[in-house]
Amino acid sequence: MASIEKRSENTYRITVSAGYDSKGVKKRKHKTVSIPATMTERQREKELQRLAVLFESEVEKGAYLDGAKISFEEFISKWLADHAEKQLTPSTIKSYKSKIENRIIPSLGHLKMSKIQPHHLLEFYNNLEEDGVRLDTYYKATDKLLNLIDGFKSTDLGIDNKTLLNLKKGNKVKFSTAEKISKHIDEKFSLIFVPINKNATLSSKTIKQYHDLISSIFTTAVQWNVIFNNPADRVKPPKVAKKQGKYYDEEQVAKLLMNLEDEPLTLKTIVYLAIDTGLRVGELCALTWNDIDYDKKSIKVDKQRQYVHNYGVITTIPKTESGVRHITVSDIVIKLLKKYKLEQDKNRIRLANIWISSDLIFVHEDGSPIHPHRPYKWFTDFLKKHEMPIITFHALRHTNASILIAQGIDIVTLSGRLGHSDKNVTLNVYSHIISAKEKQAANKMNDFYNKIL
What we know:
Layout: E1 3-6, E2 11-20, E3 26-34, H1 41-61, H2 72-87, H3 90-108, H4 118-128, E4 138-141, H5 143-148, H6 154-157, H7 161-168, E5 173-174, H8 175-185, H9 189-192, E6 193-195, H10 204-223, H11 250-260, H12 265-277, H13 281-286, E7 292-293, E8 298-301, E9 304-308, E10 312-316, E11 325-328, H14 331-351, H15 374-385, H16 395-406, H17 411-418, H18 423-429, H19 431-452
Antiparallel strand pairs: 1-2, 2-3, 4-5, 4-6, 7-8, 8-11, 9-10
Helix pairs in contact: 2-3, 12-14, 12-16, 17-18
């Protein structure tokens, strides 16, 4: 049975028996809880009993984590296993683990959960803003190193022959390689290597990503009753300057479509579809022929294909419910899809046993699925070939949005087509386009007045 002891005006300590240790000594678990001052005595008593029962249940199940005893590193390990890896996509987990292992744990991992304060996080963010903090800084060998390793074999330095040859040629090497060489020959790093991009810093956007990740971890800790509050809530990360996404205007789109006429049907179809629907490249690469409804002239979007390092190409479901949607497409795209399907069927018959069978729409000539990165290369090569302004394949999504905004499509409809979780996301991403169109509204009013006055 849990016991409750008042510690201060609004805080109480709950004590629960946790069995006996190896010497027969009774073990107890303690937890301090805070009760809102606005509660009545009856409400306070009821809430304390609820928290006591919950704490007792946690202790019995072995699920109780003491924020004063568990380190941030230990909690992150549990957070990854019990939360992240069960709810997040492999690509997101990979990105999180990179940030956690390379920077967060080395800087903050040793601190106890309940001891982490806003100033710890501010110091961490300030360090991320310093010059030379990027992990992709490259280094060149100094003359001292080149003289030292003259006659050395690659094995003497812990590297391969190709790396040794590049080093002697004066080519750059990664920090991990430079550090390995420094340890092998037992020489001070700064005396044998000089950084090439020393002043390279992390962007405010990247630092904001670290803040969001840390805040998410602490939010879970609060939900699991490990700590009372989230210290990241009391820290302002660097402001991220909004970048206006590049896109083509109507004249450039017209030229783009004209240049596509003599291109392979696979490229032509995927570009038309991207402009027509604003689908992400992963969503386009995951489309199957079963997703096309020719009668309704619509496409079902409920998955995406993406490449994740160490995993390969995987197919996942959208992150949010709004990512699952049906999009109506133009007559031109429906005709193009039918033409492309006919060509694909001919290839399948022609290649017979060589054909690699799948229901995916976008495949190579032998039926093998295209890599999710392939459309980027195809599109870049196509733009260079026709001497058009270089934009990324993803910019076709922005192009689609700009065309629809110019045609007067409302934000709610546009947000639904793009698969955004909230119309405010759409407003934020495309505010510069909307603002430009808003100015045109004043010109329309001028035209109106000139007609009637």
